[in-house]
Amino acid sequence: EPEVTQTPSHQVTQMGQEVILRCVPISNHLYFYWYRQILGQKVEFLVSFYNNEISEKSEIFDDQFSVERPDGSNFTLKIRSTKLEDSAMYFCASSGGQFNSPLHFGNGTRLTVT
Amino acid sequence: GDSVTQMEGPVTLSEEAFLTINCTYTATGYPSLFWYVQYPGEGLQLLLKATKADDKGSNKGFEATYRKETTSFHLEKGSVQVSDSAVYFCALSDPGYSSASKIIFGSGTRLSIRP
User: Fold this and answer.
1) Chain A residues with CB inside 8 Å of B4's CB?
2) Could you tell me which residues are beta bridge partners of residue B12?
3) Sorting pLDDT into bands at 50, 70 and 90, what band is A102?
4) Which residues of B are less than 8 Å from A45 in CB distance?
5) Contact (CB<8Å) B34/A102
6) How far apart, in Å, do the first and last CA atoms of chain A sit?
7) Phi and psi, residue A86, nearest 5°
8) Chain B residues with CB-CB distance to A56 below 8 A
9) Whether the Cβ atoms of residue B35 and residue B48 lie closer than 8 Å to each other
10) Per residue in A57-92, pLDDT tens?
11) How far apart are CA B45 and CA B59, in angstroms?
12) Quick check: B78 and B104 in contact, CB under 8 A?
């Protein structure tokens, strides 16, 4: 069964540094998402992306965050200047876009900001 | 706004016990409802879903029925196994949002099954 893949599985960075989290969604999917889960807390929506533009974003997704689909396969989340509170598990997801089609999640990237 | 409330964990049961994890929702439209499961060290996997009132989603022995009158989607399993130990998330997707139907998650319930 096709799956969403994320790299790296774990990223450690220093406060103030830029990080790029990478995702390869399922190939025929049209909608792409980033979520995050701070340790022990709720899974929170960050952003959705369709047709090469952001469809919706949460209040968490401020100017420090950006997303890009640089080619036909990758979907990236960039954090320009990381803060300690950005430490979390970041999940990428994709969906086919049909009504009520479920989201398929990757295994996540654990980001640790020191 | 839309939200999902589920029972707090952790829930600890013995193998072969009956499981219920309660979930209620608030939504402005007619949401689809989901249960996702997160096994240790892994991502979120769709366990089951229901798209309209009175639908029953089922998978791997788990069931949940979409109850519009009580705005609930409780997860049940008749006989749990050690391998069911995971975190379970109730979630909704409201088609009233943009065409990219984002999912709103509950806070998750950690389930531990004793042999």
Assistant:
1) none
2) B112
3) confident
4) 102-104
5) yes
6) 37
7) -80, -10
8) 97-98, 100, 102
9) yes
10) 999 999 999 999 988 789 999 999 999 999 999 999
11) 12
12) no
